[in-house]
Amino acid sequence: MAKKQEIYFNGDDCRFCNGMCCRYVTIDIEKEPRSEDRFDEIIWWLFNPNIKILKNGHTWSILVMGKCENLNESCKCDIYEARPDLCREYPPEEDGCHFDSIKRLEGTIFNTAEELLTYLADDRKKEWAKKRLEKIRATKIL
Ligand code: SF4
Ligand code: SF4
Predict the structure, then answer these.
(1) Is the CB of 64 under 6 A from ligand 2?
(2) Tens-digit pLDDT profile for residues 51-107
(3) What is residue 75's predicted lDDT score, i.e. its pLDDT?
(4) Contact yes or no for 56/106 (Cβ under 8 A)
C-alpha cells in the first residue's frame, strides 16, 4: 500500500516529470463502502489490473490506470491550449501534486483485491474479509 504524500511539488516541476497526472483518472465512489455487498463489487473491480482503489479518509475513489490519448512521447500535452479546465487547475496550489509517482498520492492505494481484503480483515476486523481472503488463497491455482 502507498504511503502518504510527504513532499510538495508544483507546476514548475512538470518539465522533470513523466506526466504522471495524465496517466490515470480518478472516479469518486459516491458513498463510503461499509457492507460486504458493497465491497463485493469493489473486489471485482480490483481483479482488473488497470483498476486501483484510493482511500483518503472517508473518501474512496477508483483509480483507472491508463495514459491520456493527448500525452505525447515527450510527455507533453498535444492539445495544451485546449486542455480541460481540470488539467489547467492541476495541481492545486495548496496541495501540490505527486510528481512522477502515483505512490505519493495522498491516502492509501489498494492495488489488488488481496490488499483490500487484508486491510479489512486486519485493520477493520471484518470476519467475512478474513474468510474470503482464505478462500481466494486456497482456491487460486498457482
Ligand atoms: S504530476 Fe505534477 S509535476 Fe508531474 S506533470 Fe503532473 S502536475 Fe506536473
Ligand atoms: S488533456 Fe493534456 S493535460 Fe489533460 S490529461 Fe490529457 S495530456 Fe494531460
Answers:
(1) no
(2) 999 999 999 999 999 999 999 999 999 999 999 999 999 988 888 888 889 988 889
(3) 93
(4) yes
Show the beta-strand stretches assigned E in 58-100: 59-65
- Global pTM value: 0.88
| Structural domain that includes position 71 | 11-111
Confirm or reject: Cβ of 77 under 6 Å from ligand 2: yes
Is 129 inside a domain boundary? no
Number of structural domains in the chain:
1
Residue 108 has pLDDT above 90, yes or no: yes
User: Which residues does a 6 A CB cutoff place in the pocket of ligand 1?
Assistant: 9, 11, 13-14, 17, 19-21, 90-91, 97-100
The protein residue whose alpha carbon is closest to atom 1 in ligand 2 is: 83
Quote the cell numbers at residue 10.
508544483
Integer CA distances (angstroms), 2 to 11, 20, 101, 107, 115, in order: 23, 15, 10, 8, 11
